[in-house]
From TrEMBL:
Pfam family, one: MFS_1
InterPro entries: MFS (IPR011701), MFS_trans_sf (IPR036259)
Cell compartment(s), UniProt: Cell membrane
Main location (coarse class): membrane
The entry's keywords: Cell membrane, Membrane, Transmembrane, Transmembrane helix
Transmembrane intervals: 26-48, 54-75, 87-106, 112-131, 152-176, 182-201, 238-261, 273-290, 302-321, 327-355, 367-392, 398-422
Topology relative to the membrane: Multi-pass membrane protein
Protein name per UniProt: MFS transporter
Coiled-coil stretches: none
Top-rank taxon, per record: Bacteria
C-alpha cells in the first residue's frame, strides 16, 4: 500500500498558540456562517417577493457547483503558489467591496432585471468562499499544531451546523420587520469583523518557500501534478471516491424525503418538519462529538461510520416501504435521519483531517480544490438523477433500500485497502 507522508518541516506551534487560534477561528466561522446563511435566506425571500419565481431559492445551488468546476484548477494552483494569508486578505477584501457595491446599485435595477446584480453578487461570493475555504483547509498546519487539527475542523463544521439550526428561525422574522437591506448591512459588518479576526491570526509558514509563478508550467500541468499524486497515493483516491458516491446518494435524502412523505405517503408537512429539525440537530451533535475523537483510530471514526451509514440508509428504505403512520415515521424515521446526519458529520471531519494529515503541504491547495468541486457538483447531479427516479418509482422506500445496498457494496470494495493502510500507519 502506498503511503502519504506529510512534509517533515512543519512549523513549531505551541498548544497555547493553537488554543488562541482555535478561539479566533471559531468566532470567525460562527459569525460568517450564521450571517451568511441568514443573508442567503433573505436573498431568496426578496427574490420570491419581486419575481414570484420558484428559482428564487435555487440560484445558489446552480451557481456554486458551476463556479467550483470552472475555477477548480486556478484556485488550487493559486493556494499552492502564494502565501495563504495574502490570498485571504485579497479575497476577503474584494468580497466586502462587492457586497457594498451590490447595496448601492441594487435600487437601480427594476423587478425584471433584478437577477442581473444577484447573479453577479452570488458568483463573486461563491468564488471568494471557494478560495477562502480551500485556503483555510490548506493552511491548518500553519494555524494549529497536529494535536488541534481535529478540533479546528470540528469547530468549523459546528459553526456551519449551528447556523443551519438558527438562521432559518431568525431570517424570516427579521426580514418581515426590517427588509432585505438590513441583511446586506449585517453581511458587510460580519465580513469586516471576520476580516479583522483573520488579520490578527498568525500563519506559521513552512521553512520551504512557496512556489513562484512559472510561465513554463501551464495551469493544467500544475494541477495534473496533483492528479498524479492522488493516483500514486491510492488511499487518498479511495477516500475521495467514497466521498463522491456518498454526496451523490445523499441527494436522495434532500430531494426524496419531501416527495415520499407528502406525495406517496400523504402525511403532510408535520413529519417533514420534524425530520428536517432532527437532521440539523444530528449534524450539530456530530460536529460537537467529533471534537472528542482526535485520538480515536480511523477504523472506528471512518470505516465503522461508513458501514453504519449504509445500514441506516437501508433501514430507512425498509421503514418507508411499510407505509408508516405519521407517529411511526416521526419516531423511527426521525431517529434514523438524526443518526445519519450525525454520522455524516463525523465522516466529513474525519475525511478532512485525514487529507490534511496525509497529503504533502505543497499539494493541499490543489487537492482541497478538487474536493470542493467534487462535493459541490456531485450533489446537484444526484438531485437531477433522483428527481427522475422518484418520479417513476411507485414506492420511494425501495429506492432507499436499493441505494443503501449499492452504497454498501461500493464502499466495501475499498474498506480492506483502507483498513490495511490504517493498520500500517498505526492510525
Amino acid at each position: 500500500m502506498d503511503q502519504a507522508v506529510p512534509s517533515d518541516n512543519m512549523p513549531t506551534i505551541t498548544n497555547r498558540e493553537s488554543k488562541a487560534q482555535l478561539i479566533k477561528a471559531a468566532a470567525s466561522n460562527l459569525i460568517s456562517a450564521l450571517t451568511g446563511d441568514m443573508f442567503s435566506m433573505a436573498m431568496g425571500l426578496m427574490l420570491l417577493d419581486r419575481t414570484h419565481s420558484p428559482i428564487s431559492f435555487g440560484i445558489d445551488m446552480i451557481i456554486t457547483p458551476i463556479v467550483s468546476l470552472l475555477l477548480m484548477v486556478p484556485i488550487g494552483n493559486l493556494v499552492d503558489t502564494y502565501k495563504h494569508k495574502h490570498i485571504l486578505i485579497v479575497s476577503s477584501a474584494l468580497r466586502i467591496l462587492l457586497i457594498a457595491l451590490f447595496y448601492f446599485t441594487l435600487p437601480l435595477f427594476p423587478k425584471n432585471t433584478i437577477l442581473i446584480p444577484v447573479v453577479i453578487l452570488l458568483s463573486g461570493i461563491s468564488v471568494s468562499v471557494n478560495i477562502n475555504s480551500t485556503c483555510y483547509n490548506s493552511a491548518v498546519h500553519e494555524l494549529v499544531n497536529s494535536n488541534n487539527i481535529q478540533k479546528l475542523n470540528s469547530l468549523t463544521q459546528s459553526a456551519m451546523a449551528l447556523s443551519m439550526v438558527v438562521s432559518p428561525l431568525i431570517s424570516v422574522g427579521v426580514y418581515s420587520l426590517l427588509g432585505f437591506d438590513f441583511f446586506i448591512l449585517i453581511e458587510i459588518a460580519s465580513n469586516l469583523i471576520s476580516f479583522c479576526i483573520m488579520l490578527s491570526m498568525k500563519f506559521h509558514y513552512f521553512t520551504e518557500h512557496k512556489e513562484q509563478p512559472s510561465h513554463e508550467q501551464s495551469q493544467l500541468h500544475k494541477f495534473k501534478l496533483a492528479i498524479d499524486y492522488i493516483k500514486k497515493i491510492k488511499v487518498i483516491k479511495y477516500v475521495i471516491l467514497i466521498g463522491l458516491v456518498f454526496n451523490f446518494f445523499y441527494a436522495a435524502i434532500s430531494i426524496g424525503l419531501p416527495y415520499v412523505i407528502k406525495v406517496q405517503l400523504h402525511l403532510g408537512n408535520g413529519p417533514l418538519g420534524i425530520m428536517n429539525s432532527l437532521f440539523a440537530f444530528g449534524f450539530l451533535a456530530g460536529s460537537v462529538l467529533s471534537m472528542a475523537m482526535s485520538n480515536v483510530k480511523y477504523k472506528y471514526k471512518f470505516v465503522l461510520p461508513v458501514a453504519l451509514f449504509n445500514l441506516l440508509f437501508i433501514l430507512l428504505g425498509f421503514i418507508l416501504m411499510q407505509k408508516p403512520t405519521a407517529l411511526t415515521l416521526n419516531i423511527l424515521g426521525g431517529a434514523l435521519v438524526a443518526f445519519m446526519a450525525l454520522i455524516a458529520s463525523l465522516l466529513n471531519v474525519a475525511v478532512q483531517v485525514f487529507i490534511q494529515k496525509n497529503v504533502e503541504n505543497s499539494m493541499l491547495g490543489r487537492i482541497n480544490s478538487l474536493l470542493v468541486a467534487i462535493n459541490t457538483s456531485s450533489m446537484p447531479v444526484g438531485i437531477v438523477v433522483f428527481t427522475f427516479i422518484f418520479d417513476v418509482a411507485s414506492n420511494g422506500g425501495v429506492v432507499y433500500l436499493v441505494s443503501g445496498i449499492i452504497m454498501m457494496i461500493y464502499t466495501f470494495i475499498f474498506i480492506p485497502s483502507l483498513l490495511s493502510f490504517f493498520k500500517q500507519k498505526g492510525i
